[in-house]
Predict the 3D structure of the following.
Amino acid sequence: MPRPCKCRFVSATPRATLFKPAGVPARMLEPVALRLDELEALRLADWDGLYQEAAAEQMQISRPTFARLIEVARRKVADVLLHGKVLVIQGGPVMIGNERAFECAACGQRFQAPRGTGRPAECPACHGRNFCRAPQERGQGLGRCRRRGQGAAAGCGNRRRFRGGRTDGRTTTTTAQSNVAKEPS
């Protein structure tokens, strides 16, 4: 069994996610899927002009993994250009951005914290502890991530939740530590 895929950091999602030849309906063309991590590798190597070592460090992956990503991405883009196919940008084992956004329920203040530093202790404005991830940070389902289960790309926490499967009206929440059955409210 192969190792699980490690999350790759990407700076942002692209504004456009579909590219096709002009004048031909997309449904008549063969699609080629370019993952977000492959697009980020193209951006870092070809647009920003970084060497593979520096680009791999920025994505928090090894240099050989970055080399494989860039090779696959270039091959897919060449295939799209040479054969007139549709390029669809989607998915991949990614985490978007290097900071997490939070929103305080007490004062409405939005603030950010770097990834990998744990949950902030309090809101910097009102020092309250009643805050949660900002709505756009709650996951976009852009691929699988080994640290988050079935992939919310915007943040890899260790917590996994699975719902359903019960017929008595209760939901089961499964976390990395325990199984808890909750009564409906």
Remarks:
- Residues 8-94 form one domain.
